[in-house]
Amino acid sequence: MREHAPRRRVRGAGATLTAVAMAGALALTGCTASGGDGAVRSASGSPGPSPSPTPAWDASPASVAAVGDSVTRGFDACSVLADCPEVSWATGTDHGVRSLAVRLLGAAKASSHSWNHAVSGARMAQLPEQMALAAKERPELVTVMIGANDACRDSVGLMTPVADFRASFEASVRRLRAAAPKAQLYVSSVPDLKRLWSTGRENPLGKQIWKLGICRSMLGDADDMGAAAVARRDTVLARVVAYNEVLREVCAGDELCRDDGGAVFDYRFTGEQLSEWDWFHPGRNGQARLAEIAYRNVTAAGPPA
Fold first, then answer.
1. How far is CA 237 from the centre of its chain?
2. Residues whose CB is less than 8 angstroms from the CB of residue 169 and which lie 6 or more positions away in sequence, other chains included
3. 199-236 core/surface letters (b: 16 or more CB in 10 A; e: else)
4. Edge-to-edge, what's the strand order for the sheet holding 141-145?
5. pTM, to two decimals
6. pLDDT tens string for the chain (305 positions)?
7. Cβ-based neighbour number of residue 83 at 10 Å
8. Fewer Cβ atoms within 10 Å of its own Cβ: the N or the C terminal residue of the chain?
9. What span, in angstroms and rounded, lies between the C-alpha atoms of 184 and 114?
10. Residue 19: how many CA atoms within 13 Å on its side-chain side?
11. How far, in Å, CA of 135 to CA of 90, rounded?
12. What SS3 state is found at 10?
């Protein structure tokens, strides 16, 4: 999430409307859903083509590629103003963090079968290029964590429009499918930046560091509780929620994609998970917690509820 550097699944209404629409279409065309033997049949009664089975999610992928921003690069986790990919939640080798790659592949294999193409400071517009590079590795799993920089701007007016965010993410998925059609995709939600403000402002040093210009849209004038400041922070939060909805919707349209069900956004992090150098990026502890969340979701029997 460098500048110098959940969303919960909404179920029920959409599914009901879809079911009604399908039922109406069948009635209008004179088709029945199935014959007595369960086979799909046309109006003439002859068996129709069977639907293609949905690919099963592989909870044990043999290789991992990561794309995203400074969080996935481990920025400010080991030293000030520097990437530290060895502690990356996705592909790092640090024994304390135990990255997703290490948990899935083992320490030895993780070093040779994982790739980190994330770029500190990246916004969603840069993701298609990263995804194309990741696809060249022919990974069995690609992880995505991006979007904080789209909301963390010098002003709310500079935040990435939701429509542009969607278009870039859709283009990214297309890039992946064009070069690696069988790769699975795991999408993390954007963290709750308002909680970051609420947690970090309790540290005097952190607030002084934020004055250097980190995420001004949310963290600027951290102690200002006036109406304008409150409205500004709420606007940023609403944009993050909208970004997460886009991530969920686009992922739901790809049969080999699984999102985190809003787990990263919902995570109740404390100062222990933040970098001691900027009180913004995850430190080693925070990276380890992100790895735990990812591993739990990637290896789950089904997608997050």
1. 16
2. 124, 127, 246, 247, 250
3. bbeeeeebbebbeeebbbbbbbebeeeeeeeeebbeeb
4. 114-116, 64-68, 141-145, 184-187, 257-259
5. 0.83
6. 544 433 333 333 333 333 333 333 333 333 333 333 333 343 444 555 555 567 899 999 999 999 999 999 999 999 999 999 999 999 999 999 999 999 999 999 999 999 999 999 999 999 999 999 999 999 999 999 999 999 999 999 999 999 999 999 999 999 999 999 999 999 999 999 999 999 999 999 999 999 999 999 999 999 999 999 999 999 999 999 999 999 999 999 999 999 999 999 999 999 999 999 999 999 999 999 999 999 999 999 988 87
7. 22
8. C
9. 14
10. 6
11. 16
12. coil
How many other CB atoms are there within 10 angstroms of residue 54's CB atom? 8
- Rounded to the nearest 10 degrees, what angle do helices 162-179 and 127-136 cross at? 10
Question: What tokens were used for 300?
Answer: 């789950």
Spacing of C-alpha 254 from chain mean position: 14
CB 194 within 8 A of CB 268: no
Residue pair 1/76 in contact by the 8 Å Cβ criterion: no
Token duo for residue 235:
């606007």
The residue with tokens 């009180």 is 279
Tokens of 57: 């999610």
